[in-house]
């Protein structure tokens, strides 16, 4: 059945009064009658005297902790302690103390008698924030909700939140719906990670749900990360949230030194640096840093040799049977098809006849193999989807990791980081390619110790590389949003996609009365599946409207989808509002 959902249809910037939410102060029923009578955790949000006494006592001893590093940090913590709906877009400093920053913010909200919902991308981040909350709040004052708990334990913790026994919840995507009583703070870390989008209808994004909950409950909000998304920049520009950043002097003292392998000085010393996968500056930096600590190598792709091409004409190497892409799975394996698994032992290029292949995309396992030969005296460890490392020791070693799987250094940071194959990230056919690339680079670079070295294998003149060198995610978000506004792309404009069979897409479009200012783009073929007559089996149409018109468009799409669902048609088009991918 076609569904309409997920979008920013109720995003706070579309409301009439974005700074003054409605007078809704509770996300659920009041505390149970058998709740403890003392302490901030037991304070009744409906009793202003109790809350005021608690707040006044808490304000006497405000300890902002890591928030002292930000000019507006202490004021933000003070506002939470006073129960005011402070909302911020936080560009966290490099390092791992962002977990303590989140814990201090939750502690401040709890001191005002209000609860918190903290949402993180994965279980590793949940474990780290869970430990920070235990240090700041003590045992039994919060609940961690993750999928690996098992249904019984997860439900037990969910009930403790529903009953008001705990008022601080930390978890992954599903925790956005945790029934926290007297909600006073919502926290979302790394909102650019695509795991925050629910893949099931109605496809809600954690950022949208948390922003709506904060608005309705008159609660504070903290949307943080080492980078800043264009959606978060929208919240800043509309005034719904304020930027929370460190001054340049503090940033320079905490950030590593970033060098681009393709800058003029390196090209003068090594003319092959522009095309080399492992330029000499990367090897020099890794060799020097490995004397004092671990070195991180970030590789965009997992596997061994994920893509092959003809060594003569550079045409992609494909299977003779199904035309699928050929790849090498291991150091002693023959090229095989990624679709049908057929081994291509006698392959020859159909264009030029050459029988030799060259690697186009090198994966993490092959990179680790190459580094093992280049640094025979060092231990090489890998971290990826198959085996994710949580942390590594602070001693000389090489760590090869895919984006998002980088382990932290126990008790310190990496001595250096090398960001390989920047072209593989930047050349993707995706509207968010540059934004996502900067997010992955900054997340890896933030694990490097102050004064360490980061080498990125990309052209230094690219704006995204310059933003990394200057460590300026806010400036990049402003520039990216301005360009998308000029071109009419999300999030400056809102979009809805209709995907399905050509006849179903066109039938649904005929039933829609487009609101004023809406524009139809397509339908166009998507995917690689074709029918016997050569026509594409799947098409997609995009509907583009100004942000203030997304509510009317969503209602129109819902009415059309409901009308079609009544016919019990099993082949309906899929409707998504503000999809993550529009290219």
């Amino acid at each position: 059945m076609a569904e309409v959902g997920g979008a920013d249809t109720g995003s706070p910037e579309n409301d009439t009064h974005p700074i003054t939410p409605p007078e809704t102060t509770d996300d659920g029923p009041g505390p149970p009658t058998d709740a403890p009578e003392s302490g901030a955790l037991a304070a009744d949000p409906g009793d202003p005297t109790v809350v005021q006494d608690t707040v006044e006592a808490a304000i006497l001893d405000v300890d902002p902790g890591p928030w002292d590093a930000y000019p507006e940090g202490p004021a933000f913590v003070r506002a939470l302690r006073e129960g005011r709906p402070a909302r911020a877009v936080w560009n966290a400093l490099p390092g791992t103390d962002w977990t303590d920053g989140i814990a201090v913010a939750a502690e401040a909200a709890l001191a005002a008698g209000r609860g918190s919902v903290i949402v993180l991308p994965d279980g590793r981040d949940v474990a780290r924030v869970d430990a920070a909350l235990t240090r700041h709040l003590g045992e039994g004052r919060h609940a961690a909700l993750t999928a690996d708990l098992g249904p019984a334990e997860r439900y037990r913790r969910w009930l403790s939140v529903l009953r008001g026994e705990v008022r601080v919840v930390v978890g992954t995507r599903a925790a956005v719906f945790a029934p926290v009583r007297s909600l006073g703070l919502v926290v979302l870390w790394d909102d650019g990670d695509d795991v925050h989008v629910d893949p099931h209808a109605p496809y809600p994004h954690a950022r949208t749900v948390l922003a709506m909950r904060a608005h309705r409950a008159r609660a504070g909000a903290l949307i943080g990360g080492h980078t800043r998304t264009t959606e978060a920049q929208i919240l800043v520009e509309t005034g719904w949230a304020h930027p929370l950043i460190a001054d340049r002097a503090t940033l320079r003292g905490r950030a590593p030194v970033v060098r681009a392998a393709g800058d003029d000085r390196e090209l003068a010393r090594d003319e092959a640096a522009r095309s080399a996968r492992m330029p000499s500056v990367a090897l020099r930096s890794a060799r020097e840093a490995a004397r004092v600590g671990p070195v991180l190598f970030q590789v965009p792709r997992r596997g061994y040799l994920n893509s092959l091409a003809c060594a003569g004409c550079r045409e992609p190497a494909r299977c003779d049977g199904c035309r699928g892409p050929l790849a090498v799975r291991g150091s002693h394996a023959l090229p095989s098809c990624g679709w049908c698994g057929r081994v291509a032992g006698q392959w020859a290029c159909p264009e030029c006849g050459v029988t030799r292949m060259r690697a186009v995309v090198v994966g993490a396992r092959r990179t680790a193999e190459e580094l093992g030969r280049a640094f025979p005296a060092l231990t090489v460890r890998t971290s990826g989807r198959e085996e994710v490392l949580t942390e590594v020791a602070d001693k000389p070693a090489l760590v090869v990791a895919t984006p998002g799987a980088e382990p932290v250094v126990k008790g310190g940071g990496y001595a250096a980081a090398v960001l390989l194959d920047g072209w593989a990230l930047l050349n993707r056919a995706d509207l968010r390619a540059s934004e996502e690339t900067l997010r992955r680079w900054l997340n890896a670079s933030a694990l490097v110790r102050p004064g360490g070295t980061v080498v990125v294998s990309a052209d230094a003149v690219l704006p995204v590389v310059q933003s990394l060198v200057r460590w300026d995610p806010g400036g990049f978000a402003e520039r990216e949003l301005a360009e998308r506004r000029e071109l009419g792309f999300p999030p400056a404009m809102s979009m809805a996609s209709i995907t399905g069979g050509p006849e179903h897409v066109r039938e649904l479009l005929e039933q829609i009365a487009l609101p004023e200012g809406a524009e139809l783009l397509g339908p166009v073929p998507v995917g690689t599946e074709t029918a016997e007559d050569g026509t594409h089996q799947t098409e997609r149409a995009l509907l583009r409207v100004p942000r203030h018109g997304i509510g009317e468009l969503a209602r129109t799409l819902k009415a059309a989808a409901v009308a079609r669902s009544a016919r019990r048609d099993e082949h309906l088009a899929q409707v998504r509002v503000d999809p993550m991918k529009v290219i």
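Confidence is low (pLDDT under 50) at residues 1-60. The chain is about 30% helix and 20% strand.
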